[in-house]
Amino acid sequence: ALPGLVLENQYGPTETHLATAYPMTGDPQAWPSLPPIGRAIGGVRVLVLDGDLQQVPEGTPGEIYLGGVCLADGYDGRPDLTGERFLETPYGRLYRTGDLGFVLPRGDVVCTGRADAQVKVRGFRVEPAEVELALTGLPGVRETAVVARRRGGDAFLAAFCVGERTEPAQVRRRLRAVLPEYMVPSRVQWLPALPLTPSGKRDDLALQAMPLDTVTSAVPRPPADSYERAMAELIADVLELSSLGVDDNVFDLGATSLSALRVVVLAERRFGTSVPLSVFAETPTAAGLAAWLRHNHAAPAFDPLVELRRGCGRPLFLVHPIGGNVLCYVPLVRHLPGKWPVYALAAAGTATGTEPLRTVGDMAEAYLEAIRRVQPDGPYTVAGWSFGGFVAFELAARLQREGAGVENVILLDTVALDPEHLGSADREHSVGATPDAVLTWFFWELLLLGHEGGAAPSAVPPAIPPELTVAEKFEFISDHAAGLGVLPTGASAGLVRRLFEVYQANLQATGDYRPGVLDCDLTLIQSALPLPEVLWAMHDAGGSRYRDPANGWSGRTAGRLNIIQVPGDHLTMMKEPQVDAVAAALADLIGR
Fold first, then answer.
1. pTM exceeding 0.85
2. How far is Cα 297 from Cα 301, in angstroms, rounded to an integer?
3. pLDDT bucket at 424, cuts 50 / 70 / 90
């Protein structure tokens, strides 16, 4: 301390320079956590006004306006912004600062934060600066920043603290003693220091984008059965966590009343039964909700059938590619002429709490049951892109064995495997690949198939750092895919892990499948361009016959093998604008 030194809290935005000052005198231990910005300096006027530009009473929040000799003329070359921020008022020309504050009885002004920093949480307007003030009053908290984050459509508060670390759950419990529940941050994260902008100001944008730590119990208990796994995955998805222990309290993990309600609604959809919200309130854990579902004999329901277009007549059935989801068929259906119905078949495992099927035969059996619900009798038209072609082939084979008519079997650039390679006994995982290689292929396909537009990215996706743990590798994939817009912002590593399990199961099913010979015509809609180089390693490891003019399907039918070439390569043929040619080829084949 320097004797006689006075610290002054000064305030003034760029548009005015210095406008107010407040001398900080006396014992520093007695200074307020949020010191006033003081009163206007000479030649300057400071006002706190409401939305109608009326002065607010002492202690009432309003917006801070500045006037007098300190004002700039405006923004160079921006008359629109100048007119928005520099206003002619009954008090003269004023600058609208965008800062909130109130006036103390002695005339000093307190600035509480930015107007645009206010957020609406659970229907309440919250000023993050008020939460920061409460946090700085807790033991061990030296610095803090509270920012608004979004989880789906749910806004929540995240607090970042610097100081002596205590458990986030304990911080939140202490805050409940001084703040209403809706102002208590859903997430509390400790940092060595708050991020700063190049000018030295706190970087709230960096905090809003910063990944949040996974907060679970010290030794999280893994799921004991399918009920607990389903609930753990569902809750992790809603809270955007990579994983959680089944005994973890969801409210300690950052759940709000809205996200808890979303969990219950999704559980009802998955298990087809009404779940009282009180059950979750009493035991807010994955294990608690699973126990209720188990006790009430709720059975998880998964329907692979996805209606892509309503219509009349016999439907077209499209089987999912290796990733398991069927969004890839949406552009195709937009271009399909005619009025016949179109259904897609999605893979189990893509939905929370479901397990992927492990063989092409199991998939065909499950999908036949779904198909017959909407078309009890033949003749049938089945098709599939890439991996989906194997399942479509097996569907047709089973329908024929049962005596049902098969009108069309259409392979969308599906590539058969070499029979000699299939018979090899020394292959690992049926596709001749290490787990790291399979994860890399999954990552590449996720990015390449998720890319929008008529051409896939020309560059090979980045390599997954080998030194990462398995969990960190899924985080790496999640962050990269979300950054490119392939996955939604905030997509958890748990979601990526689930998608990978589907991919891995389907890759294994491909290597294990032994197609027979169909007693009907077979159509291959083949991409005109060679297989993209980025896919060579995967196809070579599995013994793919992608260099064969007929994609390896000669001899797989007792009828005719029709080959129709369309623009694009294996990936781009299903994207705009090439997908239009695929739709035209399908329309010609179906002819109704």
1. no
2. 12
3. very low
